[in-house]
Every structure is written in C-alpha cells, then in structure tokens.
Design goal:
The chain is of the alpha+beta class. It contains 14 helices and 23 strands. α3 runs parallel beside α4 and α4 packs across α7.
C-alpha cells in the first residue's frame, strides 16, 4: 500500500517485524564491548568504555575524538566484520531479548526489523518532538555505515500467543548470547544479565506477526533514530533505489502489559542562568520554598503536587517551585493543546517557566539535559555557574494519553527503561 502523502514510499498494512541476520560480537568477553545507548554516554563514560576493550561499540556509535567521524565508524565496522570481531548470523531471525537481575526478569521482548510507517498512519506512535541536530548526526552515521547499530525501543500491548512463545523460548531453548554487565544498563546499578535467543522457524515468525499486525506501538526510546530511519528511507526512494533494507529499522518491541516500563525523569541544566537570578525571577510567578538541606528539597519535590521543580546550583540552599500563578500560566499555555498536555510538568517548563519567567528558549544550546540523576545535574550546574532544574517523572498513563491524541510531549520529557544494551546485536544493510 503506498503512502498517500508520499506515494513512492511503501507502507505496510500494520505493525510488522521482519527477521534479519543479526550481527553480533565474537569476542570472548561480550560484556566489555557493550555500552548504554549513545545518548546516555558522557565524556567520562566514553573514555571508560573505550579503555575497557579495544573493540567497544562506542567506537561505532560515537566515532572519533569528536564523536562525529562517521567514515571512521564505517571503516571500523568493515574491518571488524572482515577480521571476524563481528559476524552475521547465517539464518535470518527474530530475537527474543531478556534482561534480568538475580532471579527477577525485568523485561522480555522481540528484536527484529520493524517495518517503517509514517506517524499519520497511527501504527508506530511518537510521543516526543525531535531536534534537527541529533537527527542529522544519526542520519550521517547510518548513511555512512549503512547500518543500524542499536535498536530503538517500542512498547505495545501484546497478546497471549506471543507471551506464551516468548516464555517457551526463554525457558526451554539455549540462548545465542548470555552476558552479565556489572554496571547495570544506562548507568550505575546492580549487575544485569542480558540474553538473546534466535527464532528462525517460519511458523513461529508468522504467529508473532499475526499477533502484531493490528496493534499500535509507542516509541519509548529512540525518537531521533526513528526519525532518522524515515529520512534515510526517503533518501533511498528519492534516489530511485526502490524497496530495500532502508524500509525497516532495528527495534526492540516489549509488551507493556507483561512488562510495565520504568519511567524516569530527565532533568535540565541552564549554564547561562545563575541560581540567584533564576529564583528571583521565579518569585513573581511561583511559590518558592527554600531548603537548606538539598536532600530535604528532593524529598519535598517527590511529594509535591504538579507542576513542581527543584532549583539548585553551586552551594547554598535548594528552592522548590510550586503553585504557579494560574492567570499567568493560562495565558502562557497554547490553547490548541489538550488539557492533559497542558498539565505536563515538561510542557509547563517549556511554555511557561523557561520562556515567560526566565526569557529563555528551550533549545539544545541554552538547555542541557541530564538523564535520571539529580546529583549529576546539580554538579553540572555548579561547574558552569548555572541552574539545575530537577523534575519528577511523568506518568506512563499521561504519556500514552497524549500520544493517543496524536500529540507529542516536549523534547526530552521521558526516559523509559530498561533500555536495550547497545552492542549485543546490530544490523547491516549488506547482510539484510
């Protein structure tokens, strides 16, 4: 079925996962060549990962000293495939991927080639806007390497037939990858076990796709990479390349009913806004509560009614913002958005606190992001003489509700987990 808005692009009739020749490491200690997703890796993290093993996947996903040497990534990938550091599985497969901690299964899902569909088809639903910089970066990497080096993360509500098959595979069959990563996934934490099983049987793959076809999937993580998949697909079809591997993208699909996601906040750091100035300006529109002990401020934020934010920086007290002036807030929020969207703390941050109270644009140059860790955000603010804005996480129901209305939450509003570990499995167009 053609895409009516872009007739040269093929559009599948539903959610579809295709088997592929998984590209996997053959090195002895696979744990040392994996990493968190690319956008969770800071400078110190990158150095530590690169020193842990000469073939760490960071050399592919963040290539070179400036992280943008795409030709270097292409040449490294080609060399590792030629040398046998990486090898493609001989049979195409859909892979069962499991993360566990101790005896507890944290998440179990499917990794395969997901058929690309535009957002207006309402099959794969974005819930965040994307920024041009990260899309351009990932597009240059994918275009140059002709590869998907890490899967995006999709959530869907699955059926019993798929759940039974995943349980049967994970409990009765031998995994093709079984590795324990000591530092958790996406940051410090307890050790996690990562296992992969390959499903190659055509009847089992058909069963999976029969279950998926009429379902919707929410992009939990990887909005910029999914936007990149679509842009790369458009490029190939505009060049007359026709159907090909660019019509699919590497993805992990997880049944959110069986494995509810862990949703964490993403904090902000504003280097150009001194804390004293941020607090002084906020007092004209918010109730401001001072906490001499930062931990007490964080505890108060966790129980405060939304919207609420904790401001902190170099030394001194932390400041909790609550109860914004309703008239100012109402005038700041866009009238064409749903009430659920307008109530999100990230929406109020982007539309009211940043531009109206502080006179700032919510863009990559002005506002830095820090995943999960409030202490890391506060340290970064202190080092730059700026302000850290600590947020509570959004609720999963709010995110799903906004996405179901066809809306998107502001950028970097959510951090769903557990995220797939990068480097366990990759996809190259030449093998697919």
């Amino acid at each position: 079925m053609p895409d009516m808005a872009n007739p040269e692009l093929p559009v599948p009739d539903g959610l579809k996962l295709r088997p592929f020749h998984g590209v996997r490491y053959t090195v002895g200690d696979v744990a040392r060549v994996t990493s968190p997703p690319y956008d969770l890796i800071g400078e110190d993290d990158a150095r530590a990962l690169l020193s842990s093993h000469p073939n760490n996947v960071v050399r592919l996903i963040l290539p070179g000293a400036d992280r943008h040497r795409y030709a270097e990534a292409r040449d490294t990938l080609s060399a590792w495939l030629a040398e046998g550091v990486l090898a493609a599985d001989p049979e195409p497969a859909i892979y069962v991927y499991e993360q566990s901690a101790g005896d507890r299964v944290l998440q179990r899902g499917l990794i395969g080639d997901v058929a690309l569909t535009p957002p207006e088809r309402r099959i794969i639903l974005p819930h965040e806007d994307v920024m041009p910089g990260p899309v351009a970066d990932r597009l240059a990497l994918m275009r140059t390497t002709q590869a998907n080096l890490e899967p995006i993360f999709l959530l869907y509500e699955g059926g019993e037939s798929t759940a039974r098959l995943l349980t049967e595979v994970a409990t009765t069959r031998a995994p093709v990858t079984d590795v324990v990563v000591e530092d958790g996934n996406g940051g410090p934490g307890p050790a996690r076990r990562h296992r992969l099983w390959a499903i190659t049987d055509a009847s089992e793959i058909a069963l999976l796709n029969d279950d998926l076809r009429d379902r919707q999937a929410l992009i939990a993580d990887g909005h910029h990479r999914y936007a990149t998949y679509l842009e790369l697909q458009r490029e190939h079809h505009a060049a007359g390349d026709g159907p090909g591997p660019w019509d699919y993208g590497l993805a992990l699909l997880v049944d959110s009913t069986a494995y509810p996601p862990d949703l964490k906040p993403i904090h902000r750091v504003i280097p150009g806004l001194p804390l004293a100035q941020a607090v002084a300006r906020a007092k004209g529109a918010w109730q401001v509560h001072e906490y001499a002990v930062r931990a007490e401020g964080l505890a108060a934020l966790a129980t405060a009614p939304e919207p609420a934010y904790l401001l902190a920086g170099a030394g001194g007290p932390a400041h909790l913002l609550t109860d914004p002036d309703p008239l100012q807030l109402r005038h700041a929020m866009p009238a064409d958005r749903s009430a659920q969207w307008q109530a999100l703390n990230t929406s109020i941050l982007a539309e009211f606190l940043l531009p109206k109270v502080w006179g700032l644009h919510d863009d990559e140059r002005t506002v830095r992001i820090v995943h999960h860790d409030p202490d890391a955000a506060i340290r970064q603010a202190a080092s730059t003489g700026g302000t850290a804005v600590i947020l509570n996480p959004l609720s999963v129901d709010d995110v799903l509700g906004v996405a179901a209305e066809g809306e998107r939450v502001p950028r970097k509003s959510t951090s769903f987990g557990p995220k797939p570990r990068t480097g366990l499995i990759m996809r190259t167009f030449a093998n697919d």
